[in-house]
Design goal:
By secondary structure, the chain is α/β, with parallel strands linked by helices. It has helices at about 15-30, 35, 45-55, 70-85, 100-110, 120-130, 150-160, 255-270, 270-290, 295, 320-330, 355-370; strands at about 60-65, 90-95, 115-120, 135-140, 165-170, 190, 205-210, 310-315, 335, 340-345. Helix 4 (about 70-85) packs across helix 5 (about 100-110). The longest helix has 22 residues, at about 270-290.
């Protein structure tokens, strides 16, 4: 039972056949000409538009540049700060994913800014108090530890009211929650391809640049695939029109193919269906836990209200890593995070209510043995 899709989704049926098809029928016979004859050059935008469907983003605003999430976040964050070059602060939550904190600190050193690290509770008041001095704010809609939600629309509105560029890390939300980037007027967003999107280990990240910013955004990584005429081999960088300017070097083709293959079932289901099923699965799991292990509900680290949590739930339990290991031996894959959290995720495409029932039973057995 794969209940850690918020960390790494499983491979989708038919992936090996799809990769064999691309290798045997495209790469092997056509070699470099496959970039032109097989649509390889367009794949970063093709895959980006598919991800955009799940993010509530219109065509031409998401691109899979072929980089890691960390590199893509660096690109977005520098660009966001450059849009407000006269402001000295960069705002981030203290409980942000570690990469986000590291990248924010690096960007601040590079640009001569100061990082303002605030608790989740103090984030909004920091915008109000220091807003006129904040260049950009990086924030996530889902707390990667507890699953607690932050509403995208109201937070983005508060950023805009202060003239702050909003940068969202969607890694723990994409493919499982409604995000509505366009309707919420988000500026920039990044996310990984290997969690709920199921693109495989190290799948490339994606970048959203709102259409209204594409002509002015100045991205620091200026690779040849982001050039207006890449095959002219010009010594001077001229950015491509639209979101293509966010492309960097030659994209990892086979990783893009795997991500594209994984996105098919998700986009066919649609984010409304996926979100609704996730909510049903997580509520059912908590009901099963409460029936079998009432004491465990008192250790719930996530909000009990489904409207206030993301795609996973977390419990505060002693020896969390040991609980993870024992559940794996029983065929239930979850994950743990220090110091004492276990996380159970409900990827709606492949997790069933029957599996959730069994997982709650196995969790009760493991915890009873450890008491």
């Amino acid at each position: 039972m794969h209940l850690n899709g918020n960390s790494l989704g499983p491979p989708h049926t038919g992936l090996l056949r799809e990769l064999e098809r691309v290798v045997d029928r495209q790469w092997a016979p056509r070699q470099v000409q496959a970039w032109f004859a097989e649509g390889w050059l367009d794949l970063p935008r093709t895959v980006g538009d598919a991800i955009g469907e799940l993010l509530g983003a219109g065509p031409g605003q998401v691109v899979v540049a072929g980089e890691t999430t960390s590199t893509t976040l660096f690109n977005a964050l520098v660009a966001a700060c450059r849009l407000r070059g006269d402001r000295p602060l960069l705002l981030i939550e203290a409980d942000a994913f570690p990469t986000d904190l590291y990248i924010a600190q690096s960007v601040a050193r590079l640009l001569g800014l100061r990082v303002l690290v605030e608790s989740s509770a103090g984030f909004d008041s920091a915008l109000e108090t220091h807003g006129s001095r904040i260049a950009a704010a990086i924030v996530a809609p889902v707390d990667f530890r507890t699953g607690e939600l932050r509403e995208i629309g109201p937070t983005t509105d508060r950023c805009h009211a202060a003239g702050v560029v909003s940068v969202w890390d969607l890694s723990h939300a994409a493919g499982v929650l409604r995000i509505d980037l366009d309707d919420n007027r988000v500026d920039l967003a990044v996310g990984c391809g290997y969690k709920y999107l199921g693109g495989g280990p190290g799948a490339p990240a994606y970048l959203y640049v709102a259409e209204r910013l594409q002509a002015t955004v100045d991205l620091p990584l200026s690779g040849w695939h982001g050039h207006a005429k890449p095959f002219d081999m010009s010594p001077d960088f001229v950015p491509a029109d639209g979101v293509d300017r966010a492309r960097t070097g030659t994209p990892p083709l086979l990783s893009l193919v795997a991500l594209h293959h994984a996105l098919g079932p998700l986009t066919r289901a649609g984010i409304e269906t996926l979100s609704r099923r996730n909510r049903s699965l997580s509520d059912f799991f908590l009901a099963c836990v409460e029936e079998r292990s009432p004491h465990l509900i008192g250790r719930l680290a996530s909000p009990g209200d489904v409207d206030r949590r993301g795609g996973h739930v977390a419990f505060d339990v002693p020896d969390a890593a040991k609980v993870e290991h024992e559940l794996a031996q029983r065929g239930v894959l979850i994950d743990s995070r220090p110091p004492d959290l276990i996380r159970i995720a409900f990827a709606p495409l492949y997790v069933s209510h029957v599996q959730v029932w069994h997982a709650a039973r196995e969790l009760a057995h493991v915890l009873e043995r450890s008491r």
